[in-house]
Amino acid sequence: MLDFILNILATPAMLVGLLAMVGLILQKKPVEDVIKGTIKTIVGFLVLSAGAGVIQTESLNAFGELFNWTFNMTGTVPNNEAIVAMALTKFGLDTSYIMVIGLILNIVLARFSKMHFIFLTGHHSLYMACMLAVLLGPLGGLSGFTLWLAGGCLLAFISAFSPWFLHSSMEKIVETDELGFGHFGGFGYWVAAQCGKLFKGGKSTEDLDFPQRLTFLRDTTVSIGITMVVFFLVVTAVAVAKGILQQDPGQFSNLAELMGAGDTKTHWAVWAIKRGLNFAGAVYIILSGVRLIVGELVPAFKGIAEKLVPGAVPAIDCPVVFPYAPNAVLIGFLVSFLGGVVGLIVLIMLNNAGLGLALILPGVVPHFFCGASAGVFGNAEGGIKGCVLGSFVHGLIITFLPALCMPVFDALDKGSTFSDADFSWMALLFGNLAKVVKGIPLLCICVVVFVLPMVLSGFKNGQEEK
Amino acid sequence: MAKIRKIMCCCGSGLGSSLMVQMNIEKALKNLGIEGVEADHTSLSEINVRSADLFVVGKDIAPRIKDYPRVVVLNKIMSMKELTEKLEQAFAIEGDEIHIAR
To answer: How far apart are CA B53 and CA B71, in angstroms?
Structure first.
């Protein structure tokens, strides 16, 4: 019996299912809802793992090998879903525990510090927990409970800190102080807002008549499909021009189909389009899995947090600000993407100068969601000019920061990486810290990072009197 | 057209804001005393006109489902007041065409 329980606690999918079950019971849901929710959560985790397999074998492995042969550099596609799904195969258990402890400690932080935010963007909590597991585990030499506690402390910290430093600009956008912004691209939006402040009182983007047709790119399957097909076509075309098809197929472990090894014969362009869309298909699978997990955990978390912390402010995923400035959304995306392209060119030049940085390819998804948010924040502070400058700088940030982060992710596949700005600065800061300070001292630092905001706030969240 | 038995919310990747709206809908229905209605959320990639009897989305998503027969559009996506008023209107109509945007 003990074996059985321990085994459940050591199987990520079952563990997450168990948590969902506890959450549902705490919400006093009827039995059928508890059964439904528990099963959906476990299935979600399994679906997510299946997506990880598809993304590696059907797309990223081939892309990495092809890119490397063609340009003699590492090409990285920043995509949270891809990197997390792949990382979870190794770090699933640590991620689950860090996430639970992080959510609980987030409630503590919201209760006893001025950062009174409850972070409700469950998929970002999951991704951040996963990243912390990777950084504090292999790099920082923590494992088991110490790893989970250290990761939980940092997850709780960023969950309350990110909405907190965005809040003054967030209030201007939504015109209420009862709504927080919960998205781990926070640093990028904060910079965009500061850029906006340079142009105080400028004409708003919403006074423009801007065509809305590009909104179709919000459909992630479409936007990922387009980007990855373009990436694959360009790299494959250059590779073919360089004569890859005349090479010995034996030297490539992931390109058999392209090379026409065995009895397969595929035109290179068809191959490239198919592999590009394979990536979109894999992300579709992963997102379905994440949706099943998050859809059960977040309502429970919200219910518990609302009971325990009077006056806590919910921090909500980025599209919450999109209806307030639809033009800024599109301008922000386009300009951020442009920033990403400029950043890529600079990275190529730095690489040629011998700096050996990974090339961060501009993914439409981070530039759409994060760039759009940066545009809205820039516009709220400084109108059109603020929107344009803010989202351009944001585009540069989410290109250079991930490139600088690559060395702390040695434990992970190089084909993809975390895309949004808070992941990057947390990884730079705590990843490099974990390289120097290891074990229990590292744990102590993480605990201090968690406790300090409460000490500075005098253990009050400032919401009690409301 | 049938009674409203299922309400679907939708956002870009179907993870965050649509789930928030779903939870708000569940709360609003409870406050309105409406029972036996299920709420769910999905992504723009998967949304389907047959997947629910009523769709609730933010103003920014509305153009993407403008051909759907029963749509409630939210200007302030997290406003309980706006949501509750618009749901009350929708349930008062329950006809083949529901378009509540303003």
So the answer is: 9
